[in-house]
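Write out the 3D structure for:
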Amino acid sequence: MTSIVPTSPETVFTYGAPGLKFGVGARHELGHDLRQLGARRVLLVTDPGVAATGRPAEMAEAVRAAGVEVVVFDRVRVEPTDRSLAEAVDAARAASPFDAVVAVGGGSAIDTAKAVNLMLTNDGELMDYVNAPVGGGKAPEKPLLPLVAVPTTTGTGSESTTICVLDVVDQHVKTGISHARLRPTMAVVDPELTITQPSQVTAAAGMDILCHALESYTARGYTSYERKTAEQRVPYCGANPISDMWSEKSMSLLAGSFRRAVSHGDDLDARTEVALAATFAGLGFGNAGVHIPHANAYPVAGQVRDFRPEGYPVLDGDDHAMVPHGMAVSLTAPEAFRFTFSSAPERHVRAAQLLEPGATPGDDPASLLPDVLTRLMRDIGVPSGLAEVGYGEGDVDSLVEGTLKQQRLLATAPREASADDLAGILRGSLELW
């Protein structure tokens, strides 16, 4: 399934996952779950938009009724930056000590909670832990507090993963912190929380689910890596039988429910299936890894100038330019999968047919998956390419430079992508239709 041939092939893959509670009403048991973790004083992390729904306050009161003290931090920035994370860390340190952290919200809230948890328990500065070459790439030396993630969007998979994503403002690039200790202790996934998610948020976040599943399914196989020693193992180990199973099931669920969840947000059955797809994709890519579309997405989001998406609330005058993460990932996915097709043609065709049952390769099999993706993107209202979010030919070199900084992700790609290869993918993504 890959053209990369190691001298001494790996024979071991690893798998990790949080404890999981899934289903309508699961959030109502949060107080019990925290007490089972031994928590008596917790920090609840959320963002202003989610806080405005009243759900975090309801959960905080229920947790207090269970005998657990709750301190709320509700100033998470949507698409976190190194500066917004530092603000959250400072606030948490001022209100500490805590013996657990709860995140209520989308990937931004959960990732902020991961950063806060890291810095409450380990020494140094946040940039010490950011992936190299952007940051120091340091691994946390001390265990983190229990973290319970309660997602209110369906997409990021952050409730299952070891990754915290952030925008490093001065470098104009998105990157991450990645370590097994960042993985939440427990994910509480209640589809009812996603009913009020706006249509375009559902679309963007759902494309993130889809790309998680596709990228982990087409990632380098774990046997394509050189053999590692125990201390060299990282959370992303490549495609493997367990991650494949989760990815395939996620794509099958999306085929039947994604468009419906975007167009009929009050359809609880569709919301439940998409939430389950997000959970399955997270359980897959959180171990196998993602590759080129996610690597491209970080500079696409980090270098945005004036694009503002529909459906994302503007609070306290913070009308900052933003390409939501899932949207940024999706915009180069069709061309990225055209590029990776030769590494595993049968996987790309299989993925396309899971997403669109009845799709046939025809005379150009490499175009099947890109065509399936662009049809889906048009149906759900995703922008038609990078040009629609403000990029042009003159931005390609800068975007390539930003992508090349994401070596942790590019290492998972089934084909090595040179700067010229990446430029070709980005140019081809300026206008998808």
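The two ends are 30 Å apart (CA to CA).
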